[in-house]
Amino acid sequence: MQKLKTMIVDDEPLALDFLRSLLMEFDEVEIVAECCNGREAVATALDVRPDLLFLDIQMPGMNGFDVVKTLQSDIMPMVIFVTAFNQYAVDAFDLHAVDYVLKPLDQERIGRAVNRALDRLKNESDVSFKTPLIGAIDAISERLAADKPQNANSESLPDGMKRKLLVRDSGVVKVIPFDDIDWVDAAGDYMCVHALGETHVIRSTLRELKGKLDDKLFVQIHRSTIVNIERVVSVTPLQKGGSLLQLSDGGSLKVSRNYRESIRNLFQ
């Protein structure tokens, strides 16, 4: 039986674990490497020469598109982009015959992607996979440039691809858009993520999670607390130099003196 030497790339540990568990159900798949960022993915792909790459698009630093552009054509594997839904991105992938699976992932979607990869490997030997990938990426980039103001960052990804937090709870993986997060507080090696009235506990440090959040939307107000500024309805100064934030859900958070300037600058 021909096996696909497969590499998976995602900066979210839970997403990586979940994708691995889905792929292990297929006898045709041999997972030869796992990576948690774009630079590691490029280096590993050059080393292990996979047949197939499951590649998350939005990662900090080097994103999935950057990985494709960096890899040498002669070792370019088949790529299946893992993405949150965005219609014009999907249209571009379809137009250029680029494979993708939409989040949240499930066994059926992964199975279809694996079968397509097996068919392509049998029928398209000695054919570079990089040309259609670059065509799709360029089409998405052109649409982004047309849709954004002139001073916007053209490297940003579409709104439909905004990052989501994956939380495993009693065997179920919940998908939480970052925009739904109200605030976050640290508890040792764990983070309590408060979103739309629910609290989710994940294994992460505050620094790791903060690095994934939009710094224009989320601000650190204490050594163990981050808040979504869109949830703040008032700021009350305190006598000892800090301040108290009143949130739209009726709750309140204290801003320590060390972080008062960050709040003051945001509301000037």
| Envelope shape | elongated
Query: What characterizes the major β-sheet?
Result: 5 strands, parallel
* Mean pLDDT across all amino acids: 81
Rg from C-alpha positions?
A: 21 Å
CATH topology category name of the largest domain:
Rossmann fold
Quickly list its features.
five-stranded antiparallel beta sheet; 15 strands; alpha/beta
Q: What features would you describe in this structure?
A:
The protein is α/β, with parallel strands linked by helices. It has 2 domains: 4-147, 3-Layer(aba) Sandwich (Rossmann fold), CATH 3.40.50.2300; 174-266, LytTr DNA-binding domain (OB fold (Dihydrolipoamide Acetyltransferase, E2P), Beta Barrel). The chain has 8 helices and 15 strands. It has helices spanning 13-23, 38-48, 64-70, 87-95, 107-123, 130-147, 206-210, 260-266; strands at residues 4-9, 29-35, 52-56, 78-83, 99-102, 164-169, 172-177, 181-187, 190-195, 198-203, 218-222, 225-228, 232-237, 243-247, 252-255. The strands form 4 sheets. A 5-stranded parallel sheet has the order 2-1-3-4-5, with helices on both faces. Strands 10-9-8-12-11 form a 5-stranded antiparallel sheet. It has a 3-stranded antiparallel sheet with strand order 13-14-15, with no helix packed on it. A hairpin with a 2-residue loop joins strand 8 and strand 9 (190-195). Helix 2 (38-48) packs parallel to helix 3 (64-70) and helix 4 packs antiparallel against helix 6 (130-147). The protein is elongated and about 70 Å long. The model is unreliable at 149-157 (pLDDT under 50).
